[in-house]
Amino acid sequence: MPSPLLPVTVIGSWSFPGWYERLISEISASPSEFGPADREEALRDAVRLAVDDQLRAGIDRITDGEMQRVDFNLGFYDYLNGIVPLPQARKLGVPAHDQRSKFRCVGPLSAPDGLGTVAEYRRFQEISSAPSKMPVPGPFTLAGCISGGEVYRDRLAVTEALIPIVNAELKAAVAAGVDFLQLDEPSFACHPDDPDYFLDVIARTVEGVDAYISMHMCFGNYRGRAVGWRSYRPLFPHVGRAKVHQLALEFASREMAEIDILRELPDTMDVAVGLVDVKNTWVEPASLVADRLRMVLKHVDATRVSVTPDCGFSQTARYIAVGKAKAMAEGVRIVRSELGKS
């Protein structure tokens, strides 16, 4: 199915339905009370709702809502051998990034059964034939929750161990039929000190992967909070040399700051621009989304632009996510009409 001009998509996650969030908590507390068929039925029902929400909102390219995942990446650690969970240092008080799960290496990292994205995609295909994308966390971001222990000297060494694991996962997803991959690497936006190393990591991660590849770099969204300095400037213009087809970047939460930086990208690089803020509870009117999109088009040709929320909707109440997605799609329709496209 050909994409429309200015396709509307999501970053990856969708808001969990309330009943599903409750069920996950109950399964965690009393796992013996739920069989594998019970869990799979609930998961499929949640995916159907995520798909229905996105399509009804007018999203052109959807995901399964990441209903099988914990946060956007924490569930992937269940597939890794060679790590053990660390005790949570702080459990009380205001939620923050220091309350995320952490792990320590006790042996070489491996994922003999892959990272689970192929099963996600096959389940999605049974539910919907809509154009879709498959988000996969990148090796540097995955390394952020892993201490090397006695096995790896530092985060970069952990990253190196994860590169072939993620590369194999991307190739497996393509072999299963995925044609649009999204490499989630927000950690590089928050740790931009060595862009040349970053570009090398990305090149090796996507080597031999035959698909359209987007790279998402936001500033974090755990419990609706960012982490790090929210500026892309240190990565520009270097990031324009990344071996990907598209960059997915966060702008709405920063009131469109640095939008002119997109001029520095090569004409061969597409951009997915975040035009609704997933960190607030205000649903932007479609007219504001249209205004923001017009601002983008002053710097990038419309044929290279996709429209997204800033980040995934996993930390956003479902009714707000639905409202924001509808506003996003309607705002894009306004601008398409102005450009003479339906």
Shape: globular
Please write the CATH class name: Alpha Beta
Query: What's the order of the H and E elements?
Result: HHEEHEHEHEHHEEEHEH
Structural class: alpha/beta
How do the strands of the widest beta sheet line up side by side? 3-5-6-7-8-9
Distance linking N and C termini: 16 Å
Q: What can be said about the biggest beta sheet?
A: 6 strands, parallel
Query: What is the percentage of strand-forming residues?
Result: 5-15%
Task: Identify the CATH architecture.
Answer: Alpha-Beta Barrel
What is the mean pLDDT?
Answer: 92
Number of strands: 9
The name of the CATH topology is TIM Barrel
Radius of gyration: 19 Å
Helix percentage:
25-40%
- How many H/I helices? 9
Q: Spans with pLDDT under 50 lasting ≥5 residues?
A: none
Count of all domains = 1
Index terms:
alpha/beta; TIM Barrel; six-stranded parallel β-sheet; 14% strand; 342 residues; 9 strands; 9 helices; three-stranded mixed β-sheet
What does it look like?
- The chain has 342 residues and is of the alpha/beta class.
- It has a single domain, classed as TIM Barrel.
- 36% of the residues lie in helices and 14% in strands.
- It is built from nine helices and nine strands.
- The chain has a six-stranded parallel beta sheet with strand order 3-5-6-7-8-9. A three-stranded mixed beta sheet has the order 1-2-4.
- The longest helix is centred in the first third of the chain and has 22 residues, at 36-57.
- 39% of the residues are buried.
- The model has no long low-confidence stretch (mean pLDDT 92).
